[in-house]
From TrEMBL, chain A:
Record-linked InterPro entries: CDK, Kinase-like_dom_sf, Prot_kinase_dom, Protein_kinase_ATP_BS, Ser/Thr_kinase_AS
SMART domains: S_TKc
Organism lineage string: Eukaryota, Fungi, Dikarya, Ascomycota, Pezizomycotina
Top-rank taxon, per record: Eukaryota
Domain Protein kinase residues, every copy: 57-346
GO MF annotation list: ATP binding; cyclin-dependent protein serine/threonine kinase activity; RNA polymerase II CTD heptapeptide repeat kinase activity
GO biological process, one term: positive regulation of transcription by RNA polymerase II
Catalytic activity: L-threonyl-[protein] + ATP = O-phospho-L-threonyl-[protein] + ADP + H(+); L-seryl-[protein] + ATP = O-phospho-L-seryl-[protein] + ADP + H(+)
Organism name: Cercophora scortea
Protein name per the record: Serine/threonine-protein kinase
CC annotations in GO: cytoplasm; transcription factor TFIIK complex
Chain positions recorded as ATP binding sites: 88
Annotated spans, Disordered: 1-42, 349-383
Similarity comment: family membership: Belongs to the protein kinase superfamily. CMGC Ser/Thr protein kinase family. CDC2/CDKX subfamily.
Biased composition annotated in UniProt, kind: Low complexity: 20-33
TrEMBL record, chain B:
One GO term of the biological process aspect: regulation of transcription by RNA polymerase II
Keyword Transmembrane among UniProt keywords: no
Protein's recorded name: Cyclin-like protein
Biased composition (Low complexity): 383-393
Keyword line: Cyclin
Cited InterPro entries: Cyclin-like_dom (IPR013763), Cyclin-like_sf (IPR036915), Cyclin/Ssn8 (IPR043198), Cyclin_C_2 (IPR031658)
Region annotation Disordered: where it falls in the sequence: 47-79, 267-292, 367-424
Keyword Transmembrane helix: no
Bias type Polar residues, positions: 267-281
MF annotations from Gene Ontology: cyclin-dependent protein serine/threonine kinase regulator activity
Family: Belongs to the cyclin family. Cyclin C subfamily.
Cyclin-like domain residues: 96-178
Pfam families: Cyclin_C_2
């Protein structure tokens, strides 16, 4: 893969053009053709490496423009059939402290995470205006949200759900196993490759969690997919937050509408309380101590399996069992991503669909662009108020250390 | 265990920032040579050379390339440049300053260590004669926070480190990011140390106080010695940890290694080492067992153990050259005067005339982009046809940077020697 640009290579190339310490000393050969200008455009080693990286790809038409990034179609110079999406991160004016957190996070984590179910970062380079460009694999078939919403034209069943859930769960397990929390799992961050493979994308809210003592912000994960501990303002949390999101995506895949579409945090707590159960000291020891815990007006007992079977029975009793475990209120009791992979649902009939048999629709490039240029943590509340509700992740994170 | 190794090999720290000692040395030489060349050129172009008020400036020889007619002999006015060895010495000096600043600001060990690693990476691809190390210390600390997932306000840094303004820090941020090849995740040995002490406790027969003392001492080493040497470029976090533990308490480190690589082949299969010779082993199970034994031996057998011991010994030697008791050496004014001042003086005379001021450089670069009026960033398709438009954009980009460089896409192959001595 083209994923590994090596400094060594660039250096070696560079040393060919420049005098080595014992060389013949033709100093100006490397830069004699430079136009002298206001900034003196002589090519530094770093600039040259960057140029090398940049020139591996040909930037094509703009697929979309957003507040956070512009997205271009591109292809590898050596192989025009190798399509890429070039995501050019815009300088964010409202963030005064340099490179914005989402760009840093996306870059940091995608550089490290290589997995078939995680979008791959092929390269990164800077354009002359000092903007960061991320070269990502091109995933032309849209996202899971498109498939979920197109009720009229897209039909799918339990085997398909099982296949998609399998891919999502593997991606999340891999993140957690590498001590990374994604913190924004939702259907439109699950992109679909040309071969049907689902890929987790958008690591703009991700963070490492190797140090258990560190405080983290509770203001993450798009609201409908946000677990109760975050709604209650927990500052110490774990992979369980992502698992809850996976559970709500699972539910949404089955019922084909968002499972817990709350308009605000208070409504979210109410919806969770009604659908899943009211968090109490009995089912979740310690919950009343969380910073933003509110005493419930009415207490609904935790939903039993029969209740779930009524609504989610199409994935069978094992599937419902897995769903229920992902939606356990107490994060400490919630199933982990690894345990999810060991669940018996995967091994009970029906078998998951093969990738090539999964339903798809030609997502169109617009959708690719829409997915990549979006700011993390934003709900596209279609059919609701057109105003995207966005997380205040910039400033809120500033204080936390 | 093998899988953890595979995973480490996927990390940017291994892929992009691990080198054999000879490779690292040649990179430093290349960077130094390039810097001399371009700084000479820029000095000559801008006439910013001090009018030979430098009596020690050489007229020819070691520090300037041979004038062989191709260059119009500007040598007499050029300053004396730093050698790669002098550059490395100064990078190490400023790394010690960075570590002190991190401590002064109360940053976590991880953040300060990340900052130090980024700083040292920065000065592999850049010469200390090109960009100012004192500014890059602050940039590295600031960006180290971000890379570790905390996003401090730049004003906090301005105040804590007595800077003039936020621009001074922000101007170098993108430069740093680009110079470290956008690889921001740095893997440290601290967590490995926690794991090792938990493991030592689990053995149950080692005095608690001994473990605690070793951990404390090893941690102190890890905060200093690996950054003051090239350890991060050559060794994995766990190797660095074991080397530090070995310096703190050799017995404990060896115990840990012996216990980990404990596999001893069952005596029956000892007579034949090659799998071929095992063909006479009758049953499938026996063969499978033999195969499993080989696998085990390949992962935790004595051969691997000896290899690991050798690697750790080498890392230990490296760390032992910069133990924490050398802190005083690096911060001593008396030592500075004798050992470093001549070189820092030299640096003030030979640094890059165009790039030393990061704020001005950043401003110039912005203006340049403004001049170009987003010829690059507009949608190429909107401006012209389709395929050719893209090509035109790229070509014009190339022109700005002085024409096409080398034929692209010559297959990049991985040229790292394996400095880690195979899978653990």
């Amino acid at each position: 893969m083209t994923a590994s640009p090596f400094a060594v290579d660039a250096l070696r190339q560079a040393s060919g053009a420049a005098p080595s310490s014992t060389g013949n000393g033709n100093i100006s050969s490397s830069s004699s053709t430079q136009r002298p200008g206001p900034g003196s455009a002589t090519l530094d080693l770093v600039e040259q490496m960057n140029e090398d990286e940049k020139k591996k790809y040909v930037k094509g038409k703009k697929l979309g423009e957003g507040t956070y990034a512009n997205v271009y179609l591109g292809h590898a110079r050596h192989d025009p059939s190798l399509l890429v999406a070039i995501k050019k991160i815009k300088v964010q004016k409202e963030y005064r402290d340099g490179m914005a957190p989402d760009a840093v996070r996306e870059l940091t984590h995608l550089q490290e995470l290589r997995h078939p179910n995680i979008i791959s970062l092929l390269s990164a380079f800077s354009s002359k205006d000092q903007n960061l460009n991320l070269v990502l694999e091109f995933l032309p078939l849209g996202d899971l949200e498109m498939l979920i919403r197109d009720v009229d034209r897209v039909r799918y069943g339990a085997p398909d759900i099982k296949a998609w859930m399998g891919m999502l769960t593997r991606a999340v397990w891999f993140c957690h196993d590498n001590y990374v929390l994604h913190r924004d799992i939702k259907p439109n961050n699950l992109l679909i490759a040309a071969d049907g493979e689902v890929k987790l994308a958008d690591f703009g809210l991700a963070r490492g969690f190797a140090d258990p003592g560190q405080r983290m912000t509770a203001n993450v994960i798009t609201r409908w997919y946000r677990p109760p501990e975050l709604l209650y303002g927990a500052r110490h949390y774990s992979g369980a937050v992502d698992v809850w999101s996976v559970g709500t995506v699972f539910a949404e895949l089955i019922i084909r509408t968002p499972y817990l579409p709350g308009d605000n945090d208070i409504e979210m707590v109410r919806l969770i309380s009604r659908a899943i159960g009211t968090p109490t000291e009995d089912n979740w020891p310690g919950v009343t101590k969380l910073r933003e815990y509110t005493i419930p007006i009415e207490v609904t007992p935790v939903a039993d399996k029969a209740t779930y079977m009524n609504r989610f029975g199409s994935v069978g009793p094992e599937g419902v069992d897995l769903l229920m475990r992902t939606l356990i209120l107490d994060p400490r009791k919630r199933i982990t991503a690894r345990e999810m992979l060991e669940h018996k649902w995967w091994r009970t009939d029906p078998r998951p669909s093969r990738k090539e048999d999964l339903p798809r629709k030609s997502g169109g490039e617009e959708k690719v662009a829409a997915d990549l240029k979006r700011r993390p943590g934003v709900v596209d509340e279609e059919g609701k108020a057109k105003v995207a509700r966005k997380l205040d992740f910039g400033g809120a994170l500033g204080g936390g250390k | 265990m093998a899988t953890e190794d595979v995973r480490y090999r996927q990390s940017s720290q291994y892929r992009l920032w691990s080198f054999s000692p000879s490779k690292l040395a040649s990179m430093r030489e290349t960077t130094n040579a390039l810097a001399r060349a371009s700084i000479s050129e820029r000095m000559l172009a801008s006439n910013s050379l001090p009018a030979s008020n430098n009596p020690s400036a050489p007229t020819s020889g070691v520090n300037t390339p041979e004038p062989d007619g191709a260059t119009p002999t500007p040598t007499p006015t050029l300053p004396e440049f730093l050698t790669p060895a002098e550059e490395l010495m100064l990078v190490t000096l400023y790394t010690s300053e960075l570590l002190r600043a991190g401590e002064h600001m109360g940053l976590t060990d991880e953040i300060t260590s990340t900052a130090a690693a980024l700083f040292r990476r920065f000065y592999i691809t850049n010469s200390i004669m090109t960009y100012p190390p004192k500014d890059m210390i602050v940039v590295s600390l600031f960006f180290g926070c971000k890379a570790e997932g905390t996003f401090p306000s730049v004003d906090h840094f301005v105040k804590a480190l007595h800077k003039k303004g936020p621009e001074e820090i922000l101007a170098g941020e993108f430069l740093l990011c680009q110079s470290v090849r956008f690889a921001l995740d740095v893997k440290h040995p601290f967590r490995a140390l926690k794991g090792a002490t938990m493991e030592l406790r689990r053995y149950g027969d080692i005095e608690q106080s001994r473990i605690e003392e070793a951990e404390r001492h090893a941690r102190e080493i890890l905060r200093f010695s690996p950054h003051m040497t090239d350890a991060y470029f050559h060794y994995t976090p766990s190797q660095i940890m074991l080397a530090a533990l070995s310096l703190a308490d050799r017995g404990l480190a060896e115990r840990l290694i012996q216990a980990t690589f404990h596999y001893v082949a069952p005596s029956t299969s000892n007579d034949s080492d090659t799998p071929m010779a095992n063909s006479d082993v009758g049953t499938k199970e026996a063969r499978r067992e033999a195969k499993a034994g080989e696998d085990q031996a390949a992962i935790i057998g004595s051969y691997v153990r000896d290899k690991v011991l050798g690697t750790i010994e080498a890392c230990r030697d490296m760390l032992s050259k910069e133990l924490p008791d050398r802190k005083d050496h690096w911060s001593s004014i008396a030592v500075f005067k004798v050992q470093f001042r001549p070189t820092t003086r030299k640096l003030t005379k030979c640094h890059d005339p165009d790039r030393w001021d990061l704020v001005a450089l950043q401003r110039r670069r912005r203006e340049q982009v403004m001049d170009k009026a987003d010829s690059e960033d507009g949608d190429p398709e909107a401006r012209a046809g389709t395929g050719t438009a893209a090509k035109a954009t790229v070509d014009s980009d190339a022109a700005v940077f002085g024409g096409a460089l080398e034929p692209r896409d010559n297959k990049r192959r991985k040229v790292l020697d394996d400095p880690f001595g195979g899978p653990l």
